[in-house]
Design a protein that fits this description.
The protein is an alpha+beta fold. It is built from 2 helices and 2 strands; from the N terminus they run E-E-H-H. It has a two-stranded antiparallel ribbon. Helix 1 crosses helix 2 (31-57).
Length: 58
């Protein structure tokens, strides 16, 4: 993950897409499928993770 930190805590910016693509390739997934599916999955993950961080820190 790419994370930005600060005085008030951290914020998830996104996934390391290079690592995600390598992981998908290691699992035998098509690069086209990975490129198509990862961005929307990443967007939801980032939003939900940041919501959880905000909830924990008030």
């Amino acid at each position: 993950m790419r994370v930005a930190g600060g005085v008030s805590g951290g914020t998830v910016l996104g996934w390391d897409m290079g690592a995600a693509l390598q992981l998908g390739a290691a699992l035998g997934l098509s690069p086209l499928i990975i490129a198509e599916l990862l961005p929307p999955i990443e967007a939801v993950m980032v939003r939900k993770t940041n919501e959880e961080i905000e909830h924990r820190h008030g």
